[in-house]
Amino acid sequence: xxxxxxxxxxKIPAGLAPMEGVTDFATRFWYQCVGGMDFTWTPFLRVTDTxxxxxxxxxxxxxxxLKGLFPxxxxxxxxxxxxxxxxxxxxxxxxxxxxxxxNCGCPSPTVVxxxxxxxxxxxxxxFARFLETVATRLGPDRLSVKMRTGFHSxxxxxxxxxxxKHLPLRHLTVHxxxxxxxxxGQADWFLIxxxxxxxxxxxxxxxxxxxxxxxxxxxxxxSGVKAVIIGRGALRNPWVFQGARSAPLTSALAAFVLLQDLxxxxxxRLVTWAAGLSPDFFAFKDEARWVHLIETxxxxxxxxxxxxxxxxLQVSSRALxxxxxxxxxxxxxxxEAYMNPALMRVTSLPQLLNGIDEITRQLxxxxxxxxxxxxxxxxxxxxxxxRKPSA
Length: 391
Ligand SMILES: Cc1cc2nc3c(=O)[nH]c(=O)nc-3n(C[C@H](O)[C@H](O)[C@H](O)COP(=O)(O)O)c2cc1C
Known about the structure:
Layout: E1 14-16, H1 25-34, E2 40-41, E3 45-46, E4 74-75, E5 77-79, H2 83-93, E6 100-104, H3 109-113, H4 124-138, E7 143-147, H5 157-164, E8 172-175, H6 189-198, E9 203-206, H7 212-221, E10 227-230, H8 232-236, E11 246-247, H9 249-265, H10 267-275, H11 287-302, H12 309-312, H13 317-330, H14 349-362, E12 370-371
Parallel strand pairs: 1-10, 2-4, 3-5, 5-6, 6-7, 7-8, 8-9, 9-10
Antiparallel strand pairs: 11-12
The chain binds flavin mononucleotide.
């Protein structure tokens, strides 16, 4: 994998963070169209002593059927409660995987209750033994780890680092929050810096990177990080990786929802459709490419004889919900008029797209060039504050 040597506009490699329920294959495909990332990441695959029985092709088709198609390489993440389950999955993958990433950060009570995710951080010595068992068995550079800064409190972080700092890991990604903090407050990049200074392997930083300014601020604090990953910031502005300040909003959103619709109908069909594309498909320079993608997807979904755009754009309610999830983030980086709550209540994709176009017309903007700029005033939506602070 070459992502440690890439020259993105930010001069530091930046990847799409793993997000369970968000960055599944259809969404990763869409981000490959948006472009500019140095790498992408699967959300966690929960592994056990029997699952997966064979390599999960449909979970990560980039590594099998679609190998070589996409510009940005994929990191494959698993979550497990026992070293042997992680080892079994990595070994069964054979040469499909250069390395495997282990989730040691998920804060969900269900996950923690099953002794996986962030619960691996509860005891530093057990954490180190877990990683050492996997890393020793797989060999140097074949295990990477993504962790938080503590199970109860950030005061645990130094001990956790001391316990693992000499292991032969490929890299360590630190999300600068503890388990109880979940996604609230601010990520602590001083602790990420401590990881950089302590560990013998490369460290990636995660938390609250939303644009090039916030990226520079975080990287100033932890100047030795070898890469950053962007999660919610990439939902708020999917163009963050290229630094573009305007985007073909409705075309890109329509393509996102159609990809979700196809994936929800049949992931296999989505993969088969994608297998017919060539790598040069992913040079999305202008709106015409998005229109081409929409037409190609519509042909796949509705057959060759689609003609009525309103009929064609009717999607399942689950696909629409996913479109609204993206819209809910994205609107926070658009001019204030797009925050109109009525758009979150629409019941069809054409209504959503028409509503957005109507606002674009009222603002006298070009639909192919709506300004998308991270707006820190909307951080409250993602900080756990729950509602807008009064002025
Ligand atoms: C909805 C959601 C799902 C997530 N799922 C995962 C996951 O599957 N694996 C993982 O390692 N981290 C997961 N994370 C954590 C992110 O990868 C990232 O570390 C965190 O959101 C902080 O970065 P951000 O401020 O750029 O969002 C998830 C985060 C969110 C918001």
